[in-house]
């Protein structure tokens, strides 16, 4: 890929990773991703914003042939998909200074073994003149690590946001074209990467909204020429109350738990509640994460196996707890053969969410009429709780 002009003297570099299917060995990437870097040519100085994934270094260094001299390498975030090529860029342009937040400097000295004298640290709100263009640095911690900042190009009103407002989407579109596709990819990205830091993101949103932004140029996915699309989406995902939605991740070995889950799904639909059911045997956990953005209630369901919950349910419980969604109520269901150990273990695992635990439903063996009555009672409890929240 060649550098592409974004605006006069501003270019996008980097690469489109069409084939990548996992990020951080944790996050599914069904639509690939991109690693965006940007060159800004001022009348006096030239700056590069972020670099590229190290595996893309040859292509990236070739793109940098477009400049004779590099004065500043602005590193907004220390994670290696953006910082990994810094050592190679410095070999090509040894005079360049790496502009970072103090925390980022500390992290990149550890992650990339860079010497201290290559860095210039900037404070929140500090500016850097490139001549006729000025970069203002805005600290935005936890999007997605504690050291992250964004850079606002004052004259062009462009916010270089790195991970913030990004989407894992491999596309040849420089700017957002298919809004629905980008919205979905961005929601998945938010759910998987940003949601655990929701409270900080809410503060960061308020902070960047004070800027007069014409364009948001993230380091993953296409550039937003209509920034309100992604800003309004983030306001909804971060700050709006959860919806009248129950998310139901489950696993079943011999159908007993499945029958319980399907009964609950039907009972909730009858009561006017939206349900999203995920069979953990073959589910895309990214979709579960997306559903958690809007869910008010989660009901985890698993049989007891090997003295505890099924490992797939353990993973889902761990992930749900770690993602810190807005969920307010949680319950657990499951069947067992001779001893019940699924419900207590799962209930303990989700305590970090600080959601109210609704009375679980457990069944020895296959469900019977009484089991279904108990599940109906759970459905009634959920509806009553949602009404109390004003969402049912
Ligand atoms: Fe795209 Fe947190 O790195």
Describe what this molecule looks like in 3D:
The protein is α/β, with parallel strands linked by helices and 392 residues long. The chain has two domains: 236 residues, Metallo-beta-lactamase, Chain A (4-Layer Sandwich); 142 residues, Flavodoxin domain (Rossmann fold, 3-Layer(aba) Sandwich), CATH 3.40.50.360. It is 34% helix and 25% strand. The chain contains twelve helices and 22 strands. The strands form five sheets. The protein has a seven-stranded mixed beta sheet. α5 crosses α9 and α8 crosses α12. It is elongated and about 80 Å long. The model has no long low-confidence stretch (mean pLDDT 96). The site of MU-OXO-diiron (FEO) has 8 residues, from α2.
Reconstruct the topology from this structure.
Elements: E1 4-7, E2 10-17, E3 22-23, E4 27-28, E5 33-41, E6 46-49, H1 57-63, E7 72-74, H2 80-83, H3 86-92, E8 97-100, H4 102-112, E9 119-121, E10 127-129, E11 134-139, E12 149-153, E13 158-162, H5 179-194, H6 198-209, E14 215-218, H7 228-239, E15 245-250, H8 256-270, E16 274-279, H9 285-294, E17 297-301, E18 304-305, E19 308-309, H10 311-323, E20 329-336, H11 342-349, E21 356-357, E22 361-364, H12 369-388
Parallel strand pairs: 6-7, 7-8, 8-9, 13-14, 15-16, 15-17, 17-20, 20-21, 20-22
Antiparallel strand pairs: 1-2, 2-5, 3-4, 5-6, 10-11, 11-12, 12-13, 18-19
Bound molecules: MU-OXO-diiron.
């Amino acid at each position: 890929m060649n550098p592409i002009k974004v605006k006069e003297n501003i270019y996008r570099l980097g690469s489109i990773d069409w084939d990548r299917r996992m990020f951080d060995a944790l996050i599914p990437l069904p639509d690939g991703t991109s690693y965006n870097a940007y060159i800004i040519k001022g009348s006096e100085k030239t700056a590069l914003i972020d670099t590229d994934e190290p595996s893309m270094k040859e292509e990236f260094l070739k793109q940098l042939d477009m400049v004779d001299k590099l004065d500043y390498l602005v590193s907004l975030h220390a994670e290696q998909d953006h910082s990994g090529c810094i050592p190679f860029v410095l070999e090509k342009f040894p005079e360049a200074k790496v502009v970072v937040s103090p925390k980022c400097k500390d992290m990149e000295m550890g992650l990339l073994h860079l010497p201290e004298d290559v860095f210039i640290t900037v404070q929140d709100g500090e500016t850097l003149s490139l001549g006729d263009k000025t970069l203002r640095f805005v600290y935005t911690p936890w999007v997605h690590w504690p050291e992250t900042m964004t850079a606002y190009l004052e004259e062009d009103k462009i916010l270089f946001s790195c991970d913030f407002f990004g989407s894992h989407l491999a596309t040849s579109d420089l700017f957002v074209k298919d809004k629905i596709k980008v919205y979905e990819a961005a929601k998945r990205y938010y759910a998987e990467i940003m949601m655990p830091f929701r409270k900080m993101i809410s503060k960061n949103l308020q902070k960047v909204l004070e800027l007069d932004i014409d364009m948001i140029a993230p380091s993953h996915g296409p550039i937003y020429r209509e920034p309100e699309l992604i800003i309004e989406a983030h306001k909804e995902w971060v700050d709006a109350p959860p919806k009248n939605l129950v998310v139901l991740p489950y696993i079943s070995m011999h159908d007993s738990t499945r029958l319980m889950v399907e009964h609950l799904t039907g009972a909730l639909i009858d009561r006017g509640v939206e349900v999203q059911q995920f069979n953990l045997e073959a589910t895309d956990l990214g979709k579960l994460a997306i559903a958690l953005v809007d869910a008010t209630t989660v009901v985890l369901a698993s049989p007891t196996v090997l003295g505890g919950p099924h490992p797939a349910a353990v993973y889902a419980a761990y992930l749900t707890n770690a993602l810190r969604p807005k969920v307010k109520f949680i319950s657990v269901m499951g069947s067992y053969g001779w001893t019940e150990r699924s419900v207590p273990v799962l209930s303990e695992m989700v305590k970090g969410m600080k959601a109210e635990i609704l009375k679980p439903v457990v069944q020895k063996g296959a469900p019977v009429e009484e089991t279904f009555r108990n599940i109906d009672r759970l459905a009634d409890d959920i509806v009553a709780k949602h009404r109390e929240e004003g969402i049912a």
